[in-house]
Amino acid sequence: MFVQPKVRLGNKSYTQTELQDYRKANTQRYNQQVRHDSRNKEYTTFYNSTQWRKLRIQVLTRDNYLCQHCLAQGVVNDKDLIVHHKIELKRDWSKRLDMENLEAVCISCHNKIHEK
Ligand SMILES: [Zn+2]
Ligand SMILES: [Zn+2]
């Protein structure tokens, strides 16, 4: 029977096949990381854009500077507001500037939304 020569890495030894899989997994992890980072950069640029800053104010004005989730519970809350994307950027980039997809929420409601 053919026995694959083993390669020692640290205190483990691997066959060529195992090493190939190992390298493949590493490359995949690396690519995911790079893709993730460039995506993040895209989001940061978006959140820093004048377009977004203006739209944010429009949404806050439309929602009377009140957390829409607290309001639904009958609570008037105008503290720590942020503008939330109902459909997140990473799920649908085209809805990032859609007023219908945006709402004013407070930080604690926002945390609850994203906990789900
Ligand atoms: Zn709230
Ligand atoms: Zn959000």
Explain what the structure shows:
It is a single chain. It contains four helices and four strands; from the N terminus they run ββαααββα. It has 116 residues and is of the alpha+beta class. The protein has one domain. The strands form two sheets. A two-stranded antiparallel sheet has the order 1-2. It has a two-stranded antiparallel sheet with strand order 3-4. The protein is elongated and about 75 Å long. The structure holds zinc ion (2 copies). One zinc ion binds at residues 84-85, 110, 113-114. InterPro entries: HNH, HNH_nuc. GO terms for molecular function: endonuclease activity; hydrolase activity; nucleic acid binding; zinc ion binding. Pfam families: HNH (PF01844).
